[in-house]
Amino acid sequence: MKAIILSAGQGKRLLPLTEKTPKCLLPVDGSRPALEIQLRTLAACGIQRATVMVGFGADKVEQFLARCPLPEIEVTSRFNPFFAISNNLATCWTAIPEMTEDLVLLNGDTLFEPAVLERLLLAPSAAVSLAIDRKPSYDDDDMKVSIRRERTLAAVGKNLSPAVVYGESIGLMTFRATGVYAFRVALEKAMRDPIALQRWYLSVIDSMANSSMVEVASIEGLWWAETDTPEDLADVRAYFSSQRATLAAFETAAPVGEP
Fold it and tell me: Which CA distances in Å does 128 have to 24, 58, 90, 172?
């Protein structure tokens, strides 16, 4: 299984931080940028190859990947020439040549602990699996999901009626066997729509829900976060800071001679 990371966007809601720096290169754990954290998490879960979809600041992202290679995971990049005028449906479409085997697809602004991906990978095998979280209420920006027959996706989108909302997509999916091919076909069809450049790839997943091949996997109780806004970024940095502090305290308290 390989990974495809959608990191072509600028992250305009994080301006001026992203005026010259792609969102995926903003530091979140000390000096480590979000992209490095994602790659380390993928490697920790056994993913050995990844393609980073680049666009805004592509040269800077590729320079970072060349300067800071991780021995556990082989990383390549692919450029989306439509990044400045499109949403991530076009980035997914540009990634079709990379979709030749089972894969993990994740948004470039989604961070999570390794247990999140581990739970998704261990979920009952499905052609397409969508990681979801649940909470008491959902706002207008959440990618909400509804289900039928226990785990089968019925719909995903920002405008679902509260009465049918079961959870929210966290921006992490797996595609296996026929699911990979079906996603490629659905992407090709979606890109023929005159408004395709303004659409999100989850609209394609919504269209695939009618086939009953998309299932959801709950990661409720585990840590994940998006980095869309300055508030999000501050929360993510606080989380990693607390993790470092906890680790330091543990190491200080460990008896001499013990790991």
Answer: 25, 29, 20, 11
Instruction: Say which CATH architecture domain 2-226 belongs to.
Output: Alpha-Beta Complex (3.90)
pLDDT at residue 48 is higher than 80:
yes
93 to 3, 22, 157, 170: CA distances (angstroms)? 15, 21, 19, 20
pLDDT at 257 over 70: no
Residue with tokens 């998006």: 226
Using CA atoms, how far apart are residues 17 and 26, in angstroms rounded to an integer?
Answer: 8
- pLDDT over 90 at 143, yes or no: yes
State the burial class of residue 134 (Cβ atoms within 10 Å of its Cβ: 0-12, 13-18, 19+): middle
119 and 188 in contact (C-beta within 8 Å)? no
DSSP secondary structure letter of residue 80:
-
- Residue 255 has a pLDDT of 61
Burial of 140 (0-12, 13-18, 19+ CB in 10 A): exposed
How many residues are present in the chain?
259
Check pLDDT > 60 for residue 72: yes
Give the pLDDT score at 254.
Answer: 56
